[in-house]
Amino acid sequence: MSTKVKVLIKQVPGSEDLPLPQYMTKQSAGMDLYASVETREILKKGQIKLIPTGIKIQLPKGYEAQIRPRSGLALKYGISLVNTPGTIDADYRGEIKVIMINFGDEDFIIQRGDRIAQMVINKIEEIEWIPVDELESSERKDGGFGHTGI
C-alpha cells in the first residue's frame, strides 16, 4: 500500500461549487481538473486559451504537479494542452490554469465544471552536476532522432 502525500489546496473565491481534483478510478495516476469558467468558453478551431481551474495548491518540497491532456478530449474533439506536460513547482502559489488548444475540426465549448485536464503529482530528485572530460560509452552512443528506424 502506498503512502498518501499531503497537499494543501485552496479554492479560489467563486469556485467553491466545483469539485476538488479527484481520481476517477482506484488506480488512476492522474486527478481530473475542472474548468472554473463563468458559464462557458468557446475554444475556436485552432485557438489557444488559458482556462482557470479555481484551485491553488501547496506541494511539499521535492514534489511537482504535472498537468496533462485528457485522452478522451484529445481523441473525440482534438482538444489538447499546448505545454504538455505543464509543470507546477512546489513554490508556486497561484491559481492553476490550463493552456488549452483546439486541434479539432469544430469549435469546442467548455462548460463550467467540465473535466479539462489531469494532474499527476511526482516526487522530484534534486541533482548535482559533476563535470567530466569523457562519458562512459554505451551501446547507443550518441544515436538519436530515429536512429533505430521509423
UniProtKB/TrEMBL annotation:
Its cofactor is Mg(2+). It is an enzyme of class 3 (hydrolase). SUPFAM superfamilies: dUTPase-like. Substrate binds at R70, S71, G72, N83, T87, I88, D89. Residues 18-149 form the dUTPase-like domain. GO terms for molecular function: dUTP diphosphatase activity. Keywords: Hydrolase, Magnesium, Metal-binding, Nucleotide metabolism. HAMAP family: dUTPase_bact. Belongs to the dUTPase family. This is Deoxyuridine 5'-triphosphate nucleotidohydrolase. It comes from Defluviitalea saccharophila.
